[in-house]
Amino acid sequence: MSTQSANSCIWFSTYNLAHLNALAVGTIHEVLDIQFTDIGHDSLSAKMPVDRRTAQPAGLLHGGASVVLAESLGSMASSLVIDPEKCRCVGLDVNANHVRSAREGYVTGTAKPLHLGKSTHVWEIRINNDAGDLVCISRLTMSIRFA
């Protein structure tokens, strides 16, 4: 992993949204129409529609779809922090608290690191509706494995 100062970007290299979104082809991201929307200096964001693909039978955003968005964000973020020549990352634990329902529009998740260690990363993922209200808060722990 690269060393970073407190004010610098956490990413191992320079990445762009087109590259991240191209990785979605043939994956659950494509099925759920998850689109990466922003790469900040210490955050990664993506949006997902609330529609027939992501809703439960009652018409509300399915909690599992929120977890897919959260895990997708945290997993991608971890993979952008590590040196892909030396490490790989795999999910270790994910939890989610669903605090508000969503019936339409989009939800946007933003992942920020709570811990970026040599063997684990911990990410907080906040998912908000179009009005900016918190829908779900999740925490993802990633295991960093050295090749």
Oligomer: single chain
What would CATH call the architecture?
Answer: Roll
Strand content: 35-45%
Give a count of the beta strands, DSSP E runs of length 2 or more: 6
| Separation, N- and C-terminal Cα atoms | 13 Å
**CATH structural class:** Alpha Beta
Task: Write up what this structure looks like.
There is one protein chain. The protein is α+β, with helices and mostly antiparallel strands. It has one domain: Roll (Thiol Ester Dehydrase, Chain A), CATH 3.10.129. The chain is 20% helix and 39% strand. The protein has helices at 17-22, 28-32, 63-81, and strands spanning 35-39, 44-49, 87-98, 106-116, 120-129, 134-146. A 6-stranded antiparallel β-sheet has the order 1-2-4-5-6-3. A hairpin with a 4-residue loop joins strand 5 and strand 6. The model is unreliable at 1-6 (pLDDT under 50).
Furnish the topology, listing elements before pairings.
Elements lengths: L16 H6 L5 H5 L2 E5 L4 E6 L13 H19 L5 E12 L7 E11 L3 E10 L4 E13 L1
Antiparallel strand pairs: 1-2, 2-4, 3-6, 4-5, 5-6
Short description:
With 147 residues, this protein is of the alpha+beta class.
Question: Top keywords for this entry?
Answer:
6-stranded antiparallel beta sheet; single chain; 20% helix; 147 residues; disordered N terminus; alpha+beta; Thiol Ester Dehydrase, Chain A; 3 helices
